[in-house]
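haha ok so turns out i had the wrong file open the whole time. this is the CORRECT one, sorry everyone. sequence first:
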Amino acid sequence: MLSDAGHTLTDIFALGLAWFAAGQAERPSDDRKTYGYHRVGILVALLNAISLILIAIFIGWEAIQRFQHPEPVQPLIMFVSAAIGIVINLYIGFGLSKEGDNLNMRAAALHVFGDVGAAVAVILAGGIILLTGWTFVDPLLSVGIALFIAFGAWGIIRETTDILLESVPKDISVKQLAEDIKTIDGVNDVHDLHVWCIASGMSSLSCHVSICNLEPEENARVLTNIQTMLQSTYNISHATIQCECREHASACCENESLYCRLGSNSVEEACCDHEHQPISITTNNSHKHS
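then structure:
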């Protein structure tokens, strides 16, 4: 009973935070928050997970106390409360599950569906207590639910900290991504490759590519091909690609100069020294700047 009520309270808290974060994510970007407010959801998910860990510890501690000092329970009340919980949580859970890759809503949905399983376990425990009088089943169930909450919360903590530490998304191999970029015609090499998540399902990339021995007008074609591959294969819609000629410099720009003027009519005119900013092209809305 105690654990079921505690888990219900965590769900109410999680749902409130998730809906708050969803509203914040809709706020437009500004001069200070150029990526927008998408990471509010990540921070909220982390806060939610930490609170779940604390509540799991509390439930486990209370269960231990009830093992040592058993208290009478009311099986009928357990049946009624669990049945009501199943109906409500199924309704909420199916609504949340439609949000797809949204980390906050997905985590909230997992907790709600977890409540359904916990409620079923409560009904079974109530039946056992009613038939046998074994009241220790209630705190035993509490320990199980506490472990379930802690396990789910730990998964959320791992995922949110990966995003906040700008780790490579788990479904992307940097080595394979680099190889795929180098297979594009005109690309000699790729380095300083970084891939990270702004929020769930929003991956970004930055890299340097060597495209020596190409006339400047060919650079845009190569970059377009890279952008197309990133979007279609890795679902990376925001990438910043810096073109340069560090390798095979003698066959391209002298003294390891960089391509920085894509509109030039010759390779010589396109090269500039390190005091100039090299060209960078961002795939977002195909916007180009130099």
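The longest helix spans residues 39-68.
again sry for the mixup
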